[in-house]
Amino acid sequence: MLKFTLRAGVAATALFGAGAALADVTVYTAGPAKLIEDLAAGFTAETGVAVEVFQATTGKVMARIEAEAANPVVDVLISASWDTATDFAERGWLVPYTSPNAEMVPDFLKTETAVAQGVSALAIAWNPNSGTPKPTDWADLAKPEYKDLVNLPDPAQSGSAFELVAALSGTEGMGLFDDLAANGAIVAGANAEALNPVLQGAKAAVFGAVDYISMAGAAKGETIEVIFPESGTVIAPRPVMILNWSQNQDEAKQFVDYILSDAGQAMVAKTFLMPARSDIAADRPLIADLNILPVDAEAVYAKRAETLDAFATTFAK
User: Where is the signal peptide, in residue numbers (predicted)?
Assistant: First the structure.
């Protein structure tokens, strides 16, 4: 019988019996804890291959990979930022692999060395009990009705928040963020720190909330509503990669195949992420339903320091 335990930020191992050997495939992930728990359990039940998991924030996952550089153990990496896949591919750290289950994954969600597990988008997370009018676009949160009631995730701590800032400032300059700062909006830290005061009723809305987190909260009865702005937003594909130092590449490829299988993608959809495969249904808006702002990742990240400095200056006024 499969035994699987998982704790955020701590390695967890799927074992077969008390005398089982070490895990056959090691996965590091910045994705939702429940999702990787379900994927690992389902994969092991189907293949008999045990899975060891380290689940944490992207920063902690990257720090662990760096700390293990002399003796790397991770076989499969799932990041919350596509920039990781681009960076690791440029370093020559990834194994080229195209899963047979990736046929229905759109081309912009896969490369020779990475494929999306799922996709999140940024949105307005609004508390309907806040006494404020329902917003429909980003600029609404700079109106007087939202004075001192808006949080933003820190783009220095969140890759997706950075890309939203870059996309919006690239078309309009920092004017929208100047208006938000003048209206008392604050940069509240990482994504959870920005969202929690809204869930608790201390704030009215998050500008740039990660959609699936708020959707999951709403499904559990939290007073929160997710609104995708009419003027557009950014998406954050979550790449899956096989590391070239892996001693378990066959098993790693099997795990990628399972993530992209009908069962694996159904698990992705259950967490309120958009499935990578276009033929998998989800109880949420999908990419085709959203107005997606273009982001030239190479150009955007080349100016990352400049953008973050302008953003920090705006909110330090």
Answer: 1-23
Domain ranges for the chain: 19-119+236-283, 120-234+292-316
Most confident of 10-24, 72-86, 132-146: 132-146
Res 5: pLDDT: 32
Task: Enumerate the known binding-site residues.
Answer: 212
Distance between CA atoms of 317 and 313, rounded to whole angstroms?
A: 6
Q: Which CATH class for the 120-234+292-316 domain?
A: alpha beta
Tokens 């950014």 locate to 234
Task: In whole angstroms, give the CA distance from residue 181 to residue 108.
Answer: 34
Distance between CA 117 and CA 121 in Å, rounded? 14
Which residues line the annotated binding site for Fe cation? 212
> Whose CA is closest to 13, among 216, 24, 152, 176?
24
Phi, psi angles (nearest 5°) of residue 278: -75, -10
Sort 70 into a burial class: Cβ within 10 Å, 0-12 / 13-18 / 19+: exposed
3-state SS of 224-283 is: CEEECCCCCECEEEEEEEEECCCCCHHHHHHHHHHHCCHHHHHHHHHCCCEECCCCCCCC
- CATH classification of 19-119+236-283 is 3.90.980.10, yes or no? no
CB neighbours (10 Å) of residue 308?
A: 16
Provide the whole-model pTM: 0.87
